[in-house]
């Protein structure tokens, strides 16, 4: 029988985050769910989900706005849960403004959450996974890494940097049985997509990307790649839902 796996998912209370929790719990994973702020409604929801799926879901508050602090917290989580085998860097912050209208402090903040914290978490996770000799790191990126869109300087470049880092990590960990992947998503039916400008949506439409993908569909796809073990350790998966 396959050993029980245990996964850490950031941004667990978001649109995709909740669907990831649902599909991974149903697939038998124990889950460490991290959120920026813990709200009672979310902990009740997790309790109900854990009861139905008969798995463990433990919630931690980890704000990703400071990568070093986030790394410290995840290191502590790993020492409390040494059975962790997988991580999904799912949390991210959207940001829309032209190059000329993007203040540096905002650009830095977007990178801190979307890129630096994901790297910080991956670093401590990779060290742990090298010791346990199994597991995966999955980074959620975006169609904005391959389609240049106006107003997407901060968000698009932070996701492009994360996608590049995925390849670097994967090559460096190539002989260690650890899978490092990114999943670039098109337009997904969550709060984040609702914040996109009409101009960006129009540009995406011109590229044939107009379908709002249900987050449950993306979550099922992410589960399938986390569970798969045969293919190359490094891969950028595109899930654009173009129609
Ligand atoms: N929706 C789309 O069309 C789309 C397209 C391509 C890629 N993606 C990617 O899909 C992933 C999930 O996004 P989503 O669509 O589910 O959006 P969402 O519903 O807005 O969820 C984003 C999550 O990130 C968390 N987060 C933001 N800032 C944080 C911080 N400083 N510290 C900790 N957590 C923080 C949010 O927490 P709070 O609730 O506390 O803010 C929330 O849980 C993201 O990586 C996003 O870039 C989305």
Short description:
The chain has 243 residues and is an alpha/beta fold.
Q: How many domains, in number, for the residues?
A: 1
* Count of runs of 4 or more consecutive helical residues: 8
Characterize the overall form.
globular
Beta fraction: 15-25%
CATH class: Alpha Beta
Which small compounds were modeled alongside the protein? NADP nicotinamide-adenine-dinucleotide phosphate
What is the radius of gyration computed over CA atoms, rounded to a whole number of angstroms? 17 Å
CATH architecture: 3-Layer(aba) Sandwich
Within the CATH hierarchy, at the fold level, what is the topology?
Rossmann fold
CATH-defined superfamily:
NAD(P)-binding Rossmann-like Domain
Structural class: alpha/beta
Order of strands in the sheet with most strands: 3-2-1-4-5-6-7
Helix content: 40-55%
| pLDDT averaged over residues | 93
Largest sheet: 7 strands, parallel
Distance between the termini: 40 Å
Describe the structure.
With 243 residues, the protein is of the alpha/beta class. It has a single domain (6-239), classed as Rossmann fold (3-Layer(aba) Sandwich), CATH 3.40.50.720. It is built from eight helices and seven strands, in the order E-H-E-H-E-H-E-H-E-H-E-H-H-H-E. The protein has helices at 15-26, 40-53, 67-80, 104-132, 153-172, 191-194, 198-206, 215-227, and strands at 6-9, 30-35, 57-61, 86-89, 136-142, 179-185, 234-239. A seven-stranded parallel β-sheet has the order 3-2-1-4-5-6-7, with helices on both faces. Helix 1 links the parallel strand 1 (6-9) and strand 2. The chain starts with 5 loop residues before the first strand and ends with a strand. It binds NADP nicotinamide-adenine-dinucleotide phosphate. NADP nicotinamide-adenine-dinucleotide phosphate binds at residues 11, 13-17, 36-37, 63-65, 90-93, 113, 140, 142, 185, 187-188, 190-193.
């Amino acid at each position: 029988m396959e050993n029980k796996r245990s996964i850490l998912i950031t941004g667990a209370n978001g649109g995709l985050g909740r669907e990831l929790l649902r599909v991974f719990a149903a697939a038998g994973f124990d889950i460490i769910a991290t959120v920026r702020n813990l709200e009672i409604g979310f902990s009740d929801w997790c309790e109900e989900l854990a009861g139905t799926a008969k798995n463990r879901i433990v919630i931690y508050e980890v704000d990703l706005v400071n990568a070093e602090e986030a790394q410290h917290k995840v290191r502590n989580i790993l020492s409390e849960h040494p059975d962790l085998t997988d991580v999904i860097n799912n949390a991210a912050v959207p940001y829309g403004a032209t190059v000329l209208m993007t203040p540096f402090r905002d650009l830095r903040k977007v990178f801190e959450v979307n890129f630096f914290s994901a790297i910080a978490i991956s670093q401590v996770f990779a060290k742990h996974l090298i010791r346990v000799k199994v597991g995966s790191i999955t980074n959620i990126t975006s169609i904005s890494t391959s389609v240049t869109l106006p107003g997407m300087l901060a968000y698009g470049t932070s996701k492009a940097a994360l996608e590049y880092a995925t390849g670097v990590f994967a090559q460096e960990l190539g002989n260690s049985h650890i899978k490092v992947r990114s999943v670039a998503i098109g337009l997904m039916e969550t709060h984040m997509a609702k914040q996109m400008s009409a101009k960006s949506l129009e540009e995406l439409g011109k590229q044939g990307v107009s379908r709002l993908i249900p987050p449950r569909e993306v979550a099922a796809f992410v589960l399938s790649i986390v569970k798969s073990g045969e293919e190359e350790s490094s891969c950028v998966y595109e899930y654009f839902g173009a129609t």
